[in-house]
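Lecture 7, part 2: worked example. A protein chain together with zinc ion.
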Amino acid sequence: RETYDPHAGIDKWLRLWREERLFEAEELTPASPKDEKRTLVVSMFPYPSGDLHMGHAEVYSISDTMARFARMRGQQVLNPIAWDSFGLPAENAARKRNLDPRDWTYGNIDIQAESFERLGISFDWRTRFHTSDPEYYRWNQWLFLKLFERGLAYRKEAPVNWCPTDETVLANEQVIQGKCERCGTDVVKRNLTQWFFRTTAYAQRLLDDMDQLQGKWPDEILSMQRNWIGRSTGAHIDFKIEDREEPVRVFSTRPDTLYGATFFVVAADSALADELCDAEHRALFNDYRTALASKAEMERLAIDRPMTGVFLGRHAVNPVSGERLPVYASDYVLADYGTGAVMAVPAHDQRDLNFARAFNLPVRAVVETGESDPAETGIATAGDGVLMNSGPLNGLRKDEAIATVIADLEQQGVGQGAVTYRLRDWLLSRQRYWGTPIPIIYCDSCGAVPVPDDQLPVKLPESGYTLRPDGGKSPLETATEWVNVDCPSCGAQARRDTDTMDTFVDSSWYFLRYPNPNYEDGPFDPAGVAAWLPVDEYVGGKEHATGHLMYARFLTKVLHDLDLVPFTEPFTRLTNQGQVIMNGKAMSKSLGNLVNLQEQIAQHGPDAVRVTMLFASPPEDDIDWADVSPAGSVKWLARVWRLAGDVGNATPASDDNTGDLELRKTIHKLINDATQAMESKRFNVGIACLMKLTNTLRQAVDGQLGADDAAVQEGTAALVRMLSCVAPFTAEECWVRLGETPSVLKAGWPEVDPALLVEEQVTCVVQVAGKFRDRIDVSPDISEQDLQQLALQSEKVQAALGGASIAKVIVRAPKLVNFVPAR
Ligand code: ANZ
Ligand code: ZN
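Predicted complex, written out as structure tokens:
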């Protein structure tokens, strides 16, 4: 007996696909704008950290199946590839081995490119580019300057997250529970002058435009983004500080509790705290600050830790009651949220209450919520209720009190209604080498001067720098020849910015460049963008929920405002793939449970690896490689392959003979089910349909019908065509065995004959008081309600009821309905 070889024909098929350009979109920059015949499928582009791993195989199996399915259904499909090739791992590897990061990066890219091909991923290779190419990153610089012109890129000194191991600042998004996302080191705060993108200017639009994404992006991602943006409504209230000209403003979501404020707190690490502290308390305050600086963010944010702080020797004055409130500095108030100062209302805010108890400060409830007294329980009451102890507000409900206080504050000119967001501006500067140089030159007389357009790109120096400088310098500072330049504005001696951009800048717009990666007149070709974008199907991990996906949405809106793209959202639909895990745990070198992709491919062939990934679960679930069976996938592919051989050797049926009708009905039902499953991205269900079809056809071939039956032949051809979306190499082999001309990809997705889908019916017995009265034919999956209604319409049932009302109905869909009349 012939045996299926999971490695057969791979080179042959790769060559054929390449020669016939089967994965190339007809036109990359067609003149006509995007329509529903064009589909852009994009997976988050790879980082070249080494050869492809199991996680890559998972994502690209998913996106490739989407692309192949769309192509088989006659869509114009663009399935592009590029590399996210700047970043820390290259630099760290180069530092360790004393290499050029270029060698490591581009070497890995070539390895990954080859592996993608051999996994059968149907990329249009004409789109290929790498973000570390100067032809690409010059447009990062161009975009940076566009944002700079608009006031959306700015420089400020700020306490920033600093990773002592990677020796660089990190964006908030790269700090996970107080630790560096990459290396796990505790992040500390440092004061540095850095570049930011003003993402906060788009906070409300980032929220509002989520309406476009509802139902198309996973709910989980949308709610993570909503929380990350963190919109709060309330009021700004100005408190006079005794012996100080300027009042201090606070943000409160509960201005109704203004009469309940018993003290005042400013962020301990703010300039304001430093300024407010009087001479008497200076020494204590300084000690407190020093202690804080070494504390990790994580500890500071924990809710249940003991409250700490220092009295600053000053008093604030309540603008409505005139009450004097002692002013404290504490780390529980964050310098970069709201205004960095709060009016503390311990009765109704838990952290204020914890602080009040630690410092023996009064607790005064001002909303009667029906809960126990917070001064006694230590539990702040946050519920709704009626105001008390609040002068003119007494007796008002919470919402009425909020409106009244705001109106009152506005009238007195000491406050107003306000909205605050938790979202922070995007910190861009990185003290690293392997990234996009920030295109700014500092001149003693002209300040920060943008590098003129005709001098872009500012290329990274390829020599004359040290990757590992001493004394906390960034590598580019050591490239003296590169750093020292003439001021573009006055010609005097000036210096380049020596930081590079966060690589999330690279990934926030790369997809726009896919249709024309060699475009030179701008960051992307407007014709290509008009024809293909936004991305129809975006596939990638949910770890990017509040980082990459937020940045890309932000930048798209900026580009929209610059009239560079016609849409406001970059990704129409989003699919998050799960992780490939092992025995319930994430795979990692340290756990020693890494599954090697190349070994899996060598053992089972690329198709079985793909099928196993897709069949294990719906895309968003994790796949435990200990629970799946690539060998089982090989067995199924071998069954299809033998079936194709048997059917290919049979006598072809004549054109007017359609074969066995019952079998055809089963085949078309399965094609229909598979189509619906693929459309809704339930690839595991789709594959299950193909497996069922394989069994059905095998039984038919071995049974009375045999391989000569026209329906068997039709079904086998359909099976092979559908198989091409998940096991492309095997499908080509099978297609040839069926006696067809390659490629199966040109055959298209099988059509369903709706006439063959007419549902079967089952008989339902209808009783009245347990006695048989009628029989009705219904669909086997009828709902209980529908069945009950249908039964009630029966004349015989109506006659038996004789106008009596019904006391009880027993429904056992689809077989039985029993009406029990009232007596
Ligand atoms: C008085 C008050 C009374 C408050 C009350 C709450 C309850 P969200 O909802 O997260 O926006 N707050 C303001 N700025 C702060 C900062 N920089 N650091 C720490 N806390 C700050 O939280 C807004 C509330 O958090 C504000 O409303 C303020 O306390 C506090 F019964 O003001 B509230
Ligand atoms: Zn100058």
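The longest helix spans residues 683-702. The pocket of zinc ion (ligand 2) is lined by residues 443, 445-446, 487, 489-490, 492, 494 (CB under 6 Å). Keep this in mind for problem set question 3.
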